RCC1 and BTB domain-containing protein 1
Amino acid sequence: MDGARPRLASQELLETRVMVDVGKWPIFTLLSPQEIASIRKACVFGTSANEALYVTDNDEVFVFGLNYSNCLGTGDNQSTLVPKKLEALCGKKIKSLSYGSGPHVLLSTEDGVVYAWGHNGYSQLGNGTTNQGIAPIQVCTNLLIKQVVEVACGSHHSMALAADGEVFAWGYNNCGQVGSGSTANQPTPRKVTNCLHIKRVVGIACGQTSSMAVLDNGEVYGWGYNGNGQLGLGNNGNQLTPVRVAALHSVCVNQIVCGYAHTLALTDEGLLYAWGANTYGQLGTGNKNNLLSPAHIMVEKERVIEIAACHSAHTSAAKTQGGHVYMWGQCRGQSVTLPHLTHFSSTDDVFACFATPAVTWRLLSIEHEDFLTVAESLKKEFDSPETADLKFRIDGKYIHVHKAVLKIRCEHFRSMFQSYWNEDMKEVIEIDQFSYPVYRAFLQYLYTDTVDLPPEDAIGLLDLATSYCENRLKKLCQHIIKRGITVENAFSLFSAAVRYDAEDLEEFCFKFCINHLTEVTQTAAFWQMDGPLLKEFIAKASKCGAFKN
């Protein structure tokens, strides 16, 4: 274990770009597809995962959500469902971000500058006061001449790692988590010394009230609260200054993460160790017994390349060299005591879908691929003259399509095209039995699986769907018509449903007409209806008691 080692993966993890769908976090469903597409970095935080921050492709920073304790940094205490821009951070190129339970938010930029805001009851913002930070403010004391490369937050304390390997801590210190040798709160950043003096730290992590550090030679140190054994020292006594985790002396650790009260460590050989609280099975040992010292887990699994945990949850996750993602601990209320193989491709997805709250365990860096999926490519090429090999002409207007797509997607066209010899195949097909909007909507449906028409036009599309035996399209049309029914058009829609043999729609329209019988019978559509259908409606309405006093 002697001698310097190559720079470790704990720092590199902050810059890892992963294919993550931020839409898996419930709060991001508030954003439009265009806003989602612009996101390049993101974080979900808060005691209920009700706050979010994201960075766009042009390096603008936005926040939205509950704004508890001013944690959105918008300068006020107002919640917002609509993203608000944080002008103070736009263009700053955020590199590392962490959050506390207050919550307070801490971040560092690529230039090594640290900003903080939010809850400050214990001076966790590092500005020497306990006043809440309503907007991002640079953390200056002892950090102005440092280039900070990583930040970490516990419940109410903060840490920063400088490029030269020095660690600074501040905030709540009731259990010694600041590492100052006392339990007095630390109002401004203070260098963590003692056992870390002249040593080079390359990774930091915080539990709720504990702190951990990884050195460039693979050694691990811990300090702060240890009631559950989360420091891995073989006892449960709190530590006011850093103490080496001696049980890991024979391995070289290159990543460490902390849950609420448990710790995971990954070695350079892909071995995974766990210790601390185990109430929910978060250690992955097969039981719920706390561990005061590190235990090797996932022994029978392939090499582990990434581990994940965060102080606001009791969930653990790991990814193997083969791309398999495992989760254990508290997973949607269940206690999973052994690593469970998931269908996910990223440890981030575990926290989006199974952690409580559904926060992010790290700052997400989202890579948007340049290529389009098959579905996206089809959608893009609809009505494209450049690639089309067939045109439909309706009402004097052209729609450009691809014979192969129509043959694959529609039995009507498959039969039509097979009836032509290649040399007889027309380049332009005239359509006169349907309107242009209806036929365009149909062809577009074959490329996109969606329909966007007003209810009145959806009747014509329902006619087409019936004629072409497109049953799924029939159901979509009926759904559109149901959403658009009014007193004025109810009887016309009822008539259309009868004409196109749409039984479910017919029953829906009939009930609507009965519920609004007086108004419906005063519309022009009711009295313009042909005799047989009108008689049928009156007879059916009479049977269900519509005309009783």
Q: What stands out?
A: The chain has three domains: 15-174+185-192, 197-363, 374-542. Residues 436-448 form the longest helix (13 residues).
